[in-house]
Amino acid sequence: MKMSKNERLILIIVLGSIAAIGPFSIDMYLPSFPKIAEFFGETKKHVSYTLTSYFIGISIGQLMYGPLLEKFGRKKPLIAGLLIYVIASISIVLSANLTMMIVFRFLQALGASVGMVAGKSMIRDLFSTKEVARILSSILLVMGIAPIIAPTLGGIFVQYYNWQVIFVFLFAVGLLVLLSVIFLLKETRGYDETVTLRIKPIVRNYWNTLKDINFFRYTLASSIAIGVLFTYVSSIPFVLMDIYKVSETTFGWLFAINAIGFILGSQINRELLKKFDLKKLTNTIALMMAMITVLFLGMSYVISIPLFLFCVMTFGTMFMLGFVNPNATALSLDKFKSNIGIANALNGSVRMAMGAITSALIGYFYDGTMMPMLWFMAVLSVINLLMFIWAKKG
């Protein structure tokens, strides 16, 4: 399908806004962990389960929306999901205890997850495999504003107001994105009466998708890579605010710098894809990321890592992930011409399940040091490299 430059720009901006909901919902409230713990009379370790429940909701939600996107098209399920997100966001503000907040965070993720599936499905509807990686990199540029400003805004809100203001802001963002979808986004795939919503055929479709060797291998590789990302996200509030004793506002700025590294990597990736083979480039970057994280871990046993060096190493890791993330997604969907919604849902669900597992394990193993973070990042990066090598041989 041919698109004008203006149509492509609108598509990228709207889908980028949808994708930005995720980073806003995760990154913005990270500086508020201590204040949320104090408000509910809970430990910061228990507050981290609001992050775990969000990842669980994202994982389950994508599996739920996959068949709906195949049956009803892309736009209607997208609107329904964003409505759930908006309602859940304002409900979090009214939470009477941490358990309620954990439940509403799950529902918030359930709503937000539709954008992760619908956005990639719409892109795959319209573009070739290599172009998918480039468009995803463009969308990362649009959504890149979220992880850059979200923790900084969150830190300011917490320092000068309270943590509830963060979720009022997320409610407003969700409402704005919902209106943009309704009025600006065009449908890329209509209603399909041949698609059934019965459980048995849906399970069969997911199973048949999982059996595709290319999809299976690259989905595993990308899920391990996302594990590195969520190890960082789950650990960084504890490391920066508990170990290095930075303020909420400083935390926001440091987190934003690393987010810039992630976005910068995705944009350089987009340009390099014009000249280099997708698989070779991804494997090279995976090797470099493994080297950085293993070096990071090794240094922690030799010296007491100062804040500046810690930030340099985490920046390098996030920079490499900016390459790996869109490329792995594009490679996993390479062979699909139909059932794109199912494939996207399963790919995203496995990735977010890894995020949920990683965040839960980080919370469990947190011992007041940065060692759990460094070990998880190093081991997962090495496994990620091995997975990409294995996938390429297929």
Can I get a quick summary?
The chain is built from 16 helices and no strands. The chain is mainly α.
Q: Could you explain the architecture of this structure?
A:
- With 394 residues, the chain is mainly α.
- It has one domain: Up-down Bundle (Growth Hormone, Chain: A).
- 83% of the residues lie in helices and 0% in strands.
- It is built from 16 helices and no strands.
- It has helices at 5-27, 33-40, 44-47, 49-72, 75-93, 98-126, 129-143, 145-160, 164-184, 199-211, 213-243, 248-272, 278-300, 307-332, 340-365, 371-393.
- The protein starts with a helix and ends with a helix.
Instruction: Note the beta-strand portion.
Output: under 5%
Shape: globular
- Average predicted confidence as pLDDT: 84
Instruction: Give the helix level as a range of percent.
Output: over 70%
Give the biggest beta sheet. none
H/E series, N to C?
Answer: HHHHHHHHHHHHHHHH
Helical stretch count? Answer: 16
Low-confidence stretches: none
Q: Cα-atom Rg, whole angstroms?
A: 20 Å
Task: State the end-to-end distance.
Answer: 30 Å
Please describe the topology of this protein.
Blueprint: H1 5-27, H2 33-40, H3 44-47, H4 49-72, H5 75-93, H6 98-126, H7 129-143, H8 145-160, H9 164-184, H10 199-211, H11 213-243, H12 248-272, H13 278-300, H14 307-332, H15 340-365, H16 371-393
